[in-house]
Amino acid sequence: MSISVPSDTQRWRCTQCGNLTRFDVTRSVRSRDYLHVDLSGASRVEESEVLSETVEQVRCRWCNAVDAVEVVDRPAAEQNGAAGSGAERA
Ligand SMILES: [Zn+2]
Fold this sequence. Notes:
single chain; 90 residues
């Protein structure tokens, strides 16, 4: 089963228990990182750009249902159109 990723005006909802805010998401990310190595050889990532990502599994934190999420509209999206995005993060 493939998992739909919510757009800026959508969110996930667990079809088993109705959870909207807590999910364990397993994903494959392909990224380009800027690695800054200091003179001792220790390195850290200072910038990371996601080139592509694929959601492999979503598990509900409330009821442990796996891949039981559906994509629903965010409440703000219905009132304000597509104007606001990213403000809602619980
Ligand atoms: Zn659930």
